[in-house]
Specification:
Chain lengths: ~375, ~300
């Protein structure tokens, strides 16, 4: 069930007056609203989940290498059907099989939305019903390659996703791509359940994104913007959907696959099919620039979140979504640590209404 | 904790022609080969007037002779054997000896143990790799290893290989060693690593938790071994690190970059560190290494094998 966040997730957060406390920090047992301000995202491992590992066009007969939490995934096709194995076909196997694969060392794997998804967790629990809903992507794939890319972030996956759901950073870090922070009004709403979090940010008369000025031919100085970030917590997958008026609808699939604990892989798909010719080709390339801008901040952030520290993070009301994201991730991790891997909410149910997708533009 | 074995010299460096001065932290050590060709190690300090024994010479019978007053010592026991001016009286009390260290030689490395009666198993290196050298680096041993973990390109140079910041697997414990696998690229002309989907090669490192000895294996995406190197970083005097290394190019090399590894100088340990790059290197694998290292040592204090034996 989707709830509306009606209060700050961090209302009872305390901060020490002294910047460095000598008292050793205690690791939170279960998540509290207070604990989110010194969380340790590097310790979070999500099991029983589909992770997007590759674009379908990247996998052929020759094995390609992927990893989830350092666990090797070798992908190739046999008779056109994709295979995911923890052993390379040419490997002289000297290591034991992990509990994440069947007797042959193969992971559950499926192909959907133009992506190869590998299951990380108990193989018997793999179910297509746990695949995130991405209603703006054709289920059988087929979008042109120029709308896809592989981009890496130099930080842990939860830090990368927290960066994404905190959209106010974009006005500063990505101002040259998406525009500055000036607008007449700004509203942020947060919705969540046990498996997802959705943030909707509505801005009136925001400075026009420079990339739209240049490549969509928008001449007005301002535009109304509705931005949605929806994160599927277990899969570390996000939807970033911007509706710009005047302007285009730009839905982006933004997965953050935790290849290793301090590095993140994104098999990006931006469906710009409905945009003008120039914008359609240029906008997906913006990821190369934006991702570097993000990594310039999240890379040095990342090691500072590897240990529990006595100093807690500060926050403003614009961090509401990020605080809630931390809390939900910690709740889910605590549940998994206690042996509960069940999905309490359905992640594959069509989320078009939740993200406000203009369905007439994306009919599959 | 038992005293570990340290690879303090390459076999080629230790001869019966001239003593070799090395150090293990602040401990000066003299190495040479005796008349039987066995490598010997004593404290590089004559107990008579504290002169470095390494400034002396090796006698035909294999004893080392101090260059100051000619006192001669047996390498195995460190016992004083001869004082030139006392021709008639050559029996000396047991106290008359230089500190001797246990010595072991394997795979082209000479190792010493500061505890002469150590029960630690001697290092066993399976192969004698043909490429070798010693690099002296103006960086502490722990920081050298941290740099190896976070950006090997700062401390190693492998012809045509670019190390990326992306890992196939995080630093983890495997058979008592710290093991990780890093994605690498060939050559300089390619997409930036952050925008690259597939990497053709990886570097696997297996590092001893206590000594930092590391086996580095460069492997292609078909599991062919392209190059194997044994690295032995040892803390030296004044905070510098002496890295002795041996390397071997793989038997089956495919592609121009891989075959280029056969060129002379295709593998080296950098003598100089780009300090500006090192200063801003964001800690990643090294951050977690300390705890992992302590956990491994605590779990098996006497059983941590030599890097070469584990490999």
């Amino acid at each position: 069930m989707l709830e509306v966040a009606d209060r700050s997730a961090s209302s009872d957060t305390e901060h020490s007056d002294s910047p460095i406390s000598s008292a050793p920090p205690k690791r939170a047992t279960g998540s509290s609203l207070n604990a989110v301000n010194n969380w340790v995202p590097h310790d979070l491992v999500m099991r029983d989940s589909w992770f997007p590992l590759a674009h379908d066009h990247a996998v052929g007969k020759t094995p390609v290498r992927r990893a989830v939490y350092s666990q090797p995934y070798y992908l190739w096709r046999e008779d056109g059907k994709v295979v995911a194995s923890e052993f390379h076909p040419l490997e002289i196997v000297t290591r034991d099989k992990s509990p994440y694969t069947d007797a042959r060392g193969r992971y559950p794997v499926m192909e959907h939305y133009g992506l190869i998804w590998g299951w990380f967790g108990r193989p018997g629990a793999a179910d297509p019903a746990h695949l995130p809903s991405l209603p703006f992507l054709p289920p059988k794939g087929g979008l042109p390659k120029h709308m896809t890319a592989t981009i890496r972030f130099d930080c842990s996956a939860p830090i990368s996703l927290e960066n994404l759901i905190d959209l106010t950073h974009a006005d500063f870090l990505h101002a040259d791509v998406v525009g500055d922070e000036k607008s007449d009004s700004e509203q942020v709403e947060v919705f969540y359940d046990s498996e997802t979090i959705t943030m909707v940010r509505s801005l009136v008369n925001k400075s026009v994104a420079p990339i739209m000025k240049l490549f969509s031919g928008i001449s007005q100085p301002t535009q109304n913007v509705r931005q949605v970030i929806r994160i599927y917590l277990r899969s570390h997958c996000a939807i970033a959907y911007g509706r710009f008026s005047p302007g285009d609808d730009v839905p982006l699939f933004h997965p953050c696959t935790p290849e290793s604990r301090d590095r993140t892989r994104m098999e990006m798909v931006m469906n710009t099919s409905n945009a003008g010719l120039m914008f359609r080709h240029v906008m997906p390339k913006a990821g190369y620039k934006v991702s570097r801008q993000d990594s310039s901040m999240t890379n040095p952030q990342s090691p500072r979140y590897m240990d529990l520290t006595p100093r807690k993070d500060l926050h403003s009301r614009f961090d509401q979504a990020g605080q809630r994201y931390r809390l939900l991730m910690m709740d889910l991790a605590a549940r998994q640590e206690a042996g509960d891997f069940e999905y309490r909410d359905n992640v594959s149910a069509d989320c078009s209404d939740i993200i406000g997708l203009r369905k007439e533009l994306f009919q599959y | 904790m038992a005293s570990p074995w340290w690879k303090v010299a390459l076999s080629e460096e230790v001869t019966s022609a001239k003593p070799l001065a090395v150090d293990l932290g602040d401990q000066p050590v003299v190495l040479w080969r005796d008349a039987q060709g066995i490598a010997r190690a004593l404290e590089d300090r004559c107990p008579h007037r504290r002169a470095p024994l390494s400034r002396g010479c090796i006698r035909d019978n294999g004893w080392i002779q101090c260059g100051y007053h000619g006192w001669s010592y047996d390498g195995e026991s460190g016992r004083l054997k001869d004082i030139p001016n006392m021709k008639d009286e050559q029996k000396f009390p047991p106290l008359y000896k230089a500190a001797a260290f246990a010595v072991s030689e394997s795979g082209g490395f000479v190792s010493i143990n500061l505890d002469q009666n150590t029960t630690m198993p001697t290092p066993a290196v399976a192969q004698d790799f043909d490429l070798c050298d010693t690099a002296h680096v103006a960086l502490g041993q722990d920081q050298w290893i941290n740099a190896l973990f976070d950006d090997p390109g700062l401390v190693l140079n492998i012809r045509s290989v670019q190390f990326t910041p992306y890992l196939m697997s995080d630093l983890r414990e495997e058979n008592g060693m710290l093991v990780m696998e890093r994605f690498c690229q060939w050559g300089k002309v390619h997409w930036p690593s952050y925008a690259t989907a597939e990497f053709p090669i990886t570097l696997i490192t297996r590092t001893h938790p206590e000594t930092g000895e590391t086996e580095a294996v460069l492997r292609d995406d078909s599991f062919r071994t392209l190059l194997t190197a044994q690295l032995a970083p040892v803390a030296g005097a004044r905070g510098i690190t002496q890295v002795r290394w041996r390397a071997k190019v793989g038997d089956v090399l495919k592609g121009s970059h891989a075959t280029g590894l056969r060129h002379k100088g295709s593998f080296t340990v950098r003598e100089t560190i780009d300090a500006a790059a090192l200063r801003v290197l964001i800690p990643s694998a090294s951050h977690l290494a300390n705890k992992l290292r302590q956990d491994i040592i605590a779990a098996a204090p006497a059983a941590t094998p030599s890097v070469s034996a584990a490999a």
